[in-house]
Amino acid sequence: MKQNNLIRSQAFVDGKWLAATSGKVFEVINPATGEVIAAVPDMDREDVRKAIDAADAAWPAYRDLTAKERSALLRNWFNLIMERKEELAHLMSIESGKVITESLGEVNYGASFVEWFAEEAKRAYGDVIPPHTKDRRLVVIKQSVGVAAAITPWNFPLAMITRKVGPALAAGCPVIVKPPSETPLTALAISYLAEKAGFPPGVYNTVTSANSSEIGKELCENKKIRKLSFTGSTAVGKILMEQSAPTLKKLSLELGGNAPFIVFEDADLDDAVKGAIISKYRHNGQTCVCANRILVQDSIYDAFTEKFTRAVQELKTGDILNKDVQVGPLINEKGLNKVKEHIKDAVDKGAHILTGGKSLEGLFFQPTVLSDATPNMIIAKEEVFGPVAPIFRFHTEAEAIQMANNTQYGLASYFYSKDVNRCWRVAEALEYGMVGINEGLISTEVAPFGGVKESGFGREGSKYGMEYFMEIKYLCFGGVVK
């Protein structure tokens, strides 16, 4: 690291860098090497309560800033993130195992939300409604919902924070960020940059803890938290929703996925292979929108599988800081074991390993392709969250849609076809919040990100993203005399 002040060993609360009251810490491990990078505070509910109180105290003054003033603070933060891009990417790679080229891309992607909402802060328009009587005037305004909490995952250590915090800060909401225990260092680094950007004390807070369930419970049950945004598993999302019910908290939940990637017989196979590679193997398959099931029409099944397998064999696994490497390690032993279990189950039920299938040193695993996958396999029902691509066979368009929708999840989906009529039919029939049509990489700050069914609710990014951090207030002016 060029400047070690980006590696923070304390949490950030009320404008101060603090240890846990108990003095406890937990270690952050580099999944590529097993080495300890740093130790950070292991905070408890009382520590988090203090952060919530600080945010609540800061709320009135912060919400009363003009939209232009909040926009300027966000713009400062964006500029500081981009100035430290290389260092942030390096830090992100060593704590998450993400290869450096992807980490550099994530800094750009994460910063784009800060830039976008710096602009959207000035566009939180209300409305004037034609009155129903001559002596009244009806107006709608939007106001900050209050203190917002963000519980974020390890697979996007920067972007999952900025995608939530950007709109919250733009709307006038102080924030409490709870990053995962696997990757708290990137979160603390951008907290340091938020401090330098000039956000007032208490407006931006980051608490670290290895006890996510207890911290999550405090964020759900505390009445001063008016809004909670969570990205993670469906099982945990349901728990948070239940815990938030007594306070009727506003929620945004971006939960599990089981993304289908459909290749129709009229697709451009070379484009489909490129799209499948980037969709499946980005961050070693450890994203909620990674292709989890590759569905290929029978007439082109063999041709696609051959091209795709050759492309997978060209992927390089190794040093995550080498820009020629595309595949890094799994995040931990649990993730590695899940990959092994899914492959064993698939092979026991008739799948064939076309390439890969073996563990390498430490948490590394070979990029793997499975042919002859079937719906009764675990990998068809659960996210593998690893570098394994199962290829399923279908015959008709209707069958492909049925297979794709045969899941409780509905986050991202993808398909390739050159038939414009089919593109409209299939896009409308897929039960997913997002559909990539002839495109394997669909995330952008300008479009709404989110799912349906048990993939959650709420949208992040785009003009819609700020709506979830604001309340609509109706003003009725009576006694207007002309």
TrEMBL record:
PROSITE patterns referenced in this protein's UniProt entry, alphabetically: ALDEHYDE_DEHYDR_CYS, ALDEHYDE_DEHYDR_GLU
GO annotation (BP), single: gamma-aminobutyric acid catabolic process
One GO MF term: succinate-semialdehyde dehydrogenase (NAD+) activity
One Pfam entry name: Aldedh
Domain Aldehyde dehydrogenase residue range list: 17-474
Active site per the UniProt annotation: E254
UniProt keyword annotations, A-Z: Oxidoreductase
Name recorded for this polypeptide: Succinate-semialdehyde dehydrogenase
